[in-house]
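Q: Predict the bound structure with fe (ii) ion.
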Amino acid sequence: MTDLKGGMIPRDWRHQPPAFTPDYKSSRLRSPKLPKLSMPSTPSEDSGPVFTREILGPLDDDLTLNHAAPGEMAIGPRIIVHGQVKDEMGRGVPGALLEIWQANAGGRYRHKNDGYLAPLDPNFGGCGRAITDDEGGYRFHTVLPGPYPWPNGANDWRPAHIHFSVFGQSFAQRLVTQMYFEGDPLIWRCPIVATIPDRAAIERLIAPLDMAATVPFDARAYRFDLLLRGRHASPFENRPEGL
Amino acid sequence: MKLHETASQTVGPYVHIGCMPNAIGLHDVYPEDLGARMRGESTEGQKITIEGIIRDGAGAPLTDALVEIWQADARGRYGADGSGFTGWGRAAADAQSGVWRFETIKPGAVEAMAPHITFWIAARGINMALHTRMYFPEDETLQASDPVLAGFVPAPRRNTLIAQKTADFMYQFNIHLQGSEETVFFDV
Ligand SMILES: [Fe+2]
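A: Predicted complex:
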């Protein structure tokens, strides 16, 4: 039991999308109209679930193999997506659970509601997960997802992207976002990207090609760092989740 | 130097592929969805069921939502207690009805806060996941001095955070994203 009050540094909303963004049509009926109630965090938000590596399977961080038949592999350009999870003070966040999901190389999701023409890849499941190391580092192997059309405007295409879900040490740090790829001309045409009011904040979602981490004759690397909200530096207790 | 929190983006319509594949019939990735089990046989406390529907501004249920909860144990402590209780649950809205459901235990009071459960809601059309709280209808006395409910939530809106008891140990907590019953969401 912790006696901390207000363990989280208040969120800076200038870099976050507002709820109502009419050019992204789905937000129109799903955006709260009343302002959020601001309050200091309490032990209920300062604490959070703890995940340990025992929950991970050996291929959870390799989407080229984790759904492939024995001896086979997902189709598409082979890439590595890696980076560091940090907090706003720049400290690495160890033990952060990352879950990712994405379309296959043709831009098709393995979901019954996705009826895009591009075919499914029987060797590609489209999801993976990892837990950050002592420095907050993580690494996934996957294939480059394809862009895909979506019903919003008359001709909207999502830039190639990977969805990320992140748990830090506090439930108030919980974050979901999307990672984009350097050089994709669809990024600046995307109404979902444009929900973010700040250009620099968008640019931080665009992973640059990282030649230094690229594996020759194997896979290109992209670097994507994730920044979670900062917590005040005081220690507090968190019992392991023990799944 | 203070850095900036990564910008949020919607989870889109296919969040369950990544976070709850088993819940949508994809059983060949993970043996079990994280957060699907919150308590063990020996977990202390009253077993309860919480269910609800999230509705948009037109009253339509969100059938693609991902709901997470975080709560204290029966003694008001956060974190796993070794009995199989995790404090953290995750549920997928039903693809037809939009109903989500948690099988958990009733949390104890946390310091001066009445028993409550933190909710986190993500879905297509929600640019940044929403935080709210559920309280229990039988705890009126403790709620009167709850530092969040009584301290920050305007009186006319407090009822949006209080579940309804529908049967013994069964609670319903419906969430309204817009409209006259709009649920209180927190910037916390
Ligand atoms: Fe997507």
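A: Residues A 158, 161, 163; B 12 surround fe (ii) ion (CB under 6 Å).
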